[in-house]
């Protein structure tokens, strides 16, 4: 399978450099292999290899089957003692006794889930294992974005409910203020009509009352 070239011409180099889709892990700018994913509450972009390394529990690192919606049961899987990924027990072969290391953890410096083959003409070519890794990452990305949409909807609903509650509290507070205002007006109905002398009289009598107590 031939794929769009990302490096051989200056035109593509410019488009890659101006692209905002850069793998946040390794800095890869091959926009055609950058996947969006929601990780630790934030939207991020990853190349195929880094996306798979950041979602160790979402797929089998040996056969690249995506676990949707959940990983196999504990007796059907072998956990990696390093990254926590789950390998199908049948994919792990004889190496199932702990501590088990999954393929990328066995060779962390040299292993890559996705190393595109670049021909002499600068054109990327994808073989079956690469296309399987790409498909696996694309599926995990799609699941992650689907979950992000659900989370965003829930957050919007929560904000909507908070907004309704805040409006209700504001209305109640306003009603309380109006009631207090009404009471004050009812308690002192003659103040506005009364002369300055009448206004001072209650204060004077209160003052004399206080004096008597002392
Ligand atoms: Zn990367
Ligand atoms: Zn497997
Ligand atoms: Zn591992």
TrEMBL record:
Any one GO molecular-function label of the UniProt entry: zinc ion binding
Alphabetic keyword roster: Metal-binding, Zinc, Zinc-finger
Keyword Zinc: yes
Residue span of region Disordered: 179-214
Tagged with keyword Metal-binding: yes
Listed name of the protein: Uncharacterized protein LOC108821595
Lineage: Eukaryota, Viridiplantae, Streptophyta, Embryophyta, Tracheophyta
UniProt gene name: LOC108821595
């Amino acid at each position: 399978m031939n794929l769009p070239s990302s490096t051989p011409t200056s035109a593509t180099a410019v488009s890659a450099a101006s692209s905002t889709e850069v793998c946040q892990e390794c800095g890869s700018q091959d926009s055609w292999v950058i996947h969006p994913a929601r990780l630790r509450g934030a939207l991020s972009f990853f190349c195929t290899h880094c996306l798979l390394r950041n979602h160790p529990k979402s797929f089998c690192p040996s056969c690249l089957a995506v676990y949707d919606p959940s990983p196999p049961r504990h007796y059907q899987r072998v956990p990696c003692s390093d990254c926590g990924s789950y390998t199908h027990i049948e994919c792990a072969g004889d190496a199932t006794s702990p501590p088990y290391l999954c393929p990328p953890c066995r060779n962390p410096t040299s292993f890559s889930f996705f190393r595109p083959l670049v021909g002499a003409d600068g054109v990327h070519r994808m073989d079956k294992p690469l296309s399987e890794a790409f498909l696996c990452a694309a599926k995990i990305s799609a699941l992650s974005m689907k979950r992000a949409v659900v989370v965003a909807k829930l957050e919007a609903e929560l904000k909507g409910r908070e907004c309704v509650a805040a409006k209700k509290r504001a209305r109640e507070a306003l009603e309380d203020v109006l009631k207090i205002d009404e009471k004050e007006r009812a308690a002192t109905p003659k103040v506005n009509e009364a002369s300055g002398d009448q206004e001072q009289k209650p204060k004077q009598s209160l003052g004399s009352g206080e004096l008597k107590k002392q």
